[in-house]
Design goal:
rod-shaped, 147 residues, 3 helices
């Protein structure tokens, strides 16, 4: 069996690992986008309630309502901080997944280049063998024609 054919399973494994790493990176990116969207929504809620508090304050809101809104805003601040941590953690995880994917892609490309070189060597050998056989056949025909 030719060496290039024996390398088939190695190529399949490296390509499979690359595809898996790419899928994991893609999944992580989608999760990061979702987490960032949630963070932006929380910030939007906070800004809306902050505006409402200011508008009510100008309109003469009752102290109890001000305190309740401020407590709610404090809870939103806490939720925003927690969500920011989740976004940061997910971003770090995505960076790791990206690095793993890039490393897998590099390995896959390297294996493919090795296989390409092996195939080229095998083709050169086959061409030489074919040329030699052709030359031998031509020489035999000339000898037979001379005899």
């Amino acid at each position: 069996m030719e060496k290039s054919k024996r390398m088939g399973p190695v190529v399949q494994v490296t390509e499979s690992r690359e595809e898996k790493a790419a899928r994991e990176f893609g999944t992580c990116q989608r999760q990061l986008n979702e987490q960032q969207t949630q963070l932006e929504q929380l910030r939007g809620y906070y800004a809306d309630y902050q505006r409402q508090l200011e508008a009510r304050g100008r309109a003469g809101i009752v102290l109890a309502q001000v305190l309740e809104t401020q407590r709610f805003l404090a809870q939103l601040e806490k939720a925003i901080a927690q969500q920011q941590q989740v976004v940061d953690q997910t971003a770090r995880l995505c960076a790791q997944k990206r690095n793993l994917w890039l490393a897998a892609r590099t390995r896959s490309e390297a294996v493919n280049k090795v296989v390409e070189r092996i195939v080229a060597q095998e083709q050169r050998r086959a061409d030489k063998r074919e040329q030699k056989e052709s030359d031998d056949l031509s020489q035999r025909k000339r000898r037979e024609g001379l005899e």
